């Protein structure tokens, strides 16, 4: 399956648009990771644990997006956009949200 952020695929003809597909991945906060990230904020530097978490989440969201598009009969997803955000649950932590959205299409 071809997945792309562009709205066309060079050399391919879109036979049908099958609909918008969306996939979400949500991760809970982790006390140790949050503590270490807080230290990084104070002393400076990148927070590798969060970078890896978001990278993993983006991969999982794209995998889920592909599966949902296949269920619609698509062989490509175009116009993909990935968004990340956080949801404050309460004083105990934050949820990290990664969303992938695109248009499922059938190409030839």
UniProtKB/TrEMBL annotation:
InterPro entries: UPF0145_dom_sf, UPF0145_YbjQ-like. Belongs to the UPF0145 family. HAMAP family: UPF0145. This is UPF0145 protein H6H03_11690. It comes from Nostoc paludosum FACHB-159. The lineage of its organism: Bacteria, Bacillati, Cyanobacteriota, Cyanophyceae, Nostocales.
């Amino acid at each position: 399956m071809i997945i792309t952020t562009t709205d066309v695929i060079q050399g391919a003809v879109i036979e049908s648009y099958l609909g918008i597909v969306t996939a979400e991945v949500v991760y809970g906060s982790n006390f140790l990771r949050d503590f270490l990230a807080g230290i990084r904020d104070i002393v400076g530097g990148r927070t590798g644990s969060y970078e890896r978490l978001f990278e993993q989440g983006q991969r999982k969201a794209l995998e889920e997006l592909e599966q949902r598009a296949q269920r619609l009969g698509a062989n490509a997803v175009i116009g993909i956009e990935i968004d990340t955000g956080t949801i404050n649950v309460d004083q105990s932590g934050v949820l990290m949200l990664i969303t992938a959205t695109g248009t499922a299409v059938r190409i030839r």
